[in-house]
Design a protein that fits this description.
α1 runs antiparallel to α2, α4 runs parallel beside α16 and α13 packs across α14. The chain has 448 residues and is mostly helical. It is 68% helix and 0% strand.
Length: 448
């Protein structure tokens, strides 16, 4: 019985991974049809997950996951309250313009609120399935290796498409920069950053895995490269090159943050032997980044109309102050923010804030936004705790922590985590790392 459950669990894990990759190839699932299909598939798989959970012991992750889960559910409940009718004087001012008979609500756009609630729920389901599927270290590594291979292939495709001018996925939406299967190059830069971090994590594991005191640290690095690390080195090179050729300044900076965090996890215990593989890998990454960074550096030095976001940020803060407690409604930024767009930024349509923190505070209200980010911070804290508590098999935890900081940094300048496929991949990587962030004694009762 238990073996059958484990096989079903593994199938669910791979099925969710396949759904996320399919969504990535479908323009990042940023079209209503594609993200709805993605959410429906995840809900179906989550239903199976809940069923098999009934036949398994309650894992120790419950002991530390109940608080962030409770906070996240609280945010979802608040999102439901925002779209309920009959709010009277507390309703959003936009309802004063509605025709007679309309039911005022806290949200300026209830329909979009329903969409966001569905997506947030789907991301939480992805996280839980990843936690359950990646409890075994071998499973966690298989998932990371699979994602590394996919990110390598997508990076190679993106570079080819940009050079040849032929992109069958994007078609007329393609540009001369690398964006692979994403309409926006900044969104692809986040995906490439995830791929870079995962490949580097596997590379560091390969070059440091079989080192012993009888051989020099450099010899251990060379042996690790020859015995399989070369594949992850090639993957890191492809992802780094594609990232820089995307010309995304925020994506490049976020990737650098993620790489530094990842390298820092290898030397935090003061192990001098670990400095050699870290230094070698850092030198290789730096060489690739410098060789492909000309276009990105030119964009850093040049002015651009995209800097209108820095004129918009103060306006968003002003708008938040207008409704600090109630917010304007999940998903209502595009509808509600038009009244605050400053003249110097009015040349474009601001459907995104280009800062997820400000946008969530604008939509949720400050209390709900604080609760939402507190839930995420607790997950990040558990990853840090796992790095300190675990002695072995820390690759998945280190990779997840690096991606956590990468995504968190980029969210301050762009909206990558508001793209369904990217948010799903982020939840997936986070769940894998979370599952591996417990002591071996705690994980004995976990399936797999």
């Amino acid at each position: 019985m238990q073996n059958a459950i484990l096989k079903v669990q593994a199938l669910i894990g791979w099925a969710v991974f396949a759904v996320l990759i399919a969504a990535t190839l479908a323009l990042g699932a940023n079209r209503p049809v594609s993200w709805t299909l993605m959410a429906m598939a995840i809900i179906a798989l989550f239903s199976i997950q809940l069923f098999i959970d009934l036949f398994q012991k309650r894992p120790p992750v419950f002991n530390r996951l109940w608080l962030p889960a409770l906070l996240f559910v609280g945010v979802l409940i608040w999102g439901c309250v925002q779209i309920l009718p009959g709010m009277g004087l507390a309703a959003h001012p936009v309802w004063a313009l509605a025709p007679a008979g309309a039911a005022p609500r806290l949200s300026a756009d209830p329909a979009q609120g329903l969409h966001v609630l569905l997506r947030l729920s789907a991301y939480a389901m992805v996280f839980w399935i990843a936690v359950r599927s990646a409890a075994g270290k071998d499973n966690a590594l298989r998932y990371l290796k699979a994602f590394a291979l996919v990110s390598m292939a997508l990076a190679g495709f993106g570079i080819y498409a940009a050079v040849s001018g032929q992109n069958p996925i994007l078609g007329p939406l393609a540009s001369d920069t690398v964006s692979a299967s994403f309409v926006n190059r900044n969104n692809y830069a986040t995906f490439a950053g995830f791929g870079l971090v995962v490949c580097l994590g596997l590379l560091l594991r390969a070059v440091a895995h079989d080192q012993s005191g009888r051989k020099s640290a450099l010899a251990g690095v060379l042996q690790g490269l020859v015995s399989g690390g070369w594949l992850w080195l090639a993957g890191a090179t492809l992802c780094a090159g594609a990232l820089m050729l995307s010309l995304s300044r925020g994506g490049a900076a976020a990737a650098i943050v993620g790489v530094f965090v990842l390298l820092g996890t290898r030397v935090q215990r003061g192990n001098r032997a670990a400095l050699v593989p870290v230094a070698v890998v850092a030198a290789l990454v730096l060489a690739v980044l410098l060789s492909a960074s000309t276009g990105t550096l030119n964009r850093v030095l040049a002015t651009s109309d995209e800097e209108g976001r820095f004129a918009v940020f103060p306006a968003i803060v002003t708008a938040i102050a207008e409704r600090p407690l109630l917010g304007n409604g999940l998903g209502a930024f595009h509808t509600a923010f038009r009244a605050w767009v400053p003249p110097e930024a009015a040349v474009g349509e601001w459907d995104m804030a280009h800062n997820s923190y400000l946008e969530n505070a604008f939509e949720m209200g400050l209390p709900a936004a604080v609760i939402f980010y507190a839930a995420l911070a607790l997950l990040g804290w558990q990853l840090l705790r796992g790095l300190k508590e675990r002695r072995r098999h820390r690759t998945a935890v280190a990779v997840a922590l690096a991606c956590f900081f990468l995504a968190g940094f980029h969210a301050a300048f762009d909206f990558s985590l508001q793209i369904p496929a990217l948010a799903g991949v982020f939840a997936w990587i986070l769940g894998i790392g979370y599952a591996q962030s417990f002591r071996s004694s705690e994980m004995r009762d976990m399936p797999g």
